[in-house]
Amino acid sequence: MDDFERLIEKEFRDNLQAYFIVPHMYELGIACVEEKLRESMLFGKLTVLHYRIFEGTGDGIFRAAAAVELMVLSLDIIDDLQDKDNKGMAWNQMAPEIALNIALGLLTLSQQMLLTSEFALERTHEAAQVMSKQILTAINGQTTDLQNDITNEEDYLCMVRQKSAALLVAACMIGTLLATGEWNAQVRDYAEELGIAAQIKNDIGDLLNWENKNDFWNRKKTLPTLYLLESISEEESWILDYFEKRLQLEDVFHRREEIEKILEQTGTLLYTSVRMRTHYYNYLELVNKLGMDSYWTDQIIALAE
Amino acid sequence: MLKELIQNLMKDPGMYARLQSNQLQLAGISEVEQRALVDVIGSRSDKNEVMKSMFWAKF
């Protein structure tokens, strides 16, 4: 993966130059892409890794990996606009209508890059179909998330499979498909487990981070808050009152320390951590079951750490 | 089920302590959940605080 960053960056810049032809649009697009270049680019790396695992050769995969990263970037931008989150990011320094336009451009560009990659038409068609389908799945999950339309853990897991895990599945499966021409259900299964574990970890963080968007203040139904609401005592019923809007933020804002204590004492953090680790262990087990060379197994596992 | 087990654990410090010392039978949860539970409890940073849990699993 030594050349990964260099080759991905080249694909980003070349393709934005080709398709973001209005000068101001190109600059704005590059500003967003540069945020991505500062990150780990896990999704693109998974695409390349799966291509190599299934004996794909050549550097054409880096365009596909860059396409996957632009897909994720565009959806991240849209998510931040919807949640009014991550205010420090480049796209939040733009007017929201401009940022949305850039995101639409990046999302469409991701498809275009995949369709114009050097692989056989049949394989690019299959990969593009997977990308579209997984994006649509993620959008469905995002709809549920935005509506906070979750009443139990089953609803939550369904939403997470759609909203988050679908994109990890896309990254792994696009690399796999481009190498083999075939969908691999085992890859789908472990990518999904990793996606669920990652989202649960995010949700723990969003409950404990009081400085930025906080799922408790926002009355967000996630795995930890669902457990919390089922585990509180009679004396703690004000928490349910808050979630059901019988109390307002100003009524409970001063009780932050008490909330932290309740999160600990009810076992909310313990339960959610165990659930997260369970999905991670499922992921490890499924990766090992694929029977690939230990070199590749180690690479896949290392990417998730 | 895991949820009920943890809810009971949090209400019973003795049960929690038995889990920490591997003296508790974990019935009703899967093998992978058992392993995850034991590992999370085992990874808590301050062993003097019985009820403290390590919520950041490394992965």
TrEMBL record, chain A:
Q: Does the keyword Magnesium apply?
A: yes
Q: Which InterPro entries match?
A: ComQ, Isoprenoid_synthase_dom_sf, Polyprenyl_synt
Which UniProt keyword terms apply here?
A: Magnesium, Metal-binding, Transferase
Cofactors named for this entry: Mg(2+)
Q: What GO molecular function terms would the record report?
A: metal ion binding; prenyltransferase activity
Query: Alphabetically, which GO biological process terms does the record hold?
Result: isoprenoid biosynthetic process
Q: Where do the coiled-coil regions begin and end? A: none
What's this protein's family per the entry? Answer: Belongs to the FPP/GGPP synthase family.
Which protein are we looking at? Polyprenyl synthetase
Q: State the organism of origin.
A: Paenibacillus monticola
UniProtKB/TrEMBL annotation, chain B:
Q: What is its main location?
A: secreted
Where in the cell does this protein reside?
Secreted
Q: Which UniProt keywords apply?
A: Competence, Lipoprotein, Pheromone, Prenylation, Secreted
- Top-level taxon in the UniProt lineage: Bacteria
Q: Name the Gene Ontology biological process terms.
A: establishment of competence for transformation
InterPro entries in UniProt:
Competence_ComX_Bacillus
Q: Name one GO molecular function term.
A: pheromone activity
One matching Pfam family is: ComX
GO cellular component annotations of the record: extracellular region
- Subunit note: Interacts directly with the sensor histidine kinase ComP and stimulates its activity.
Protein name (Swiss-Prot/TrEMBL): ComX pheromone
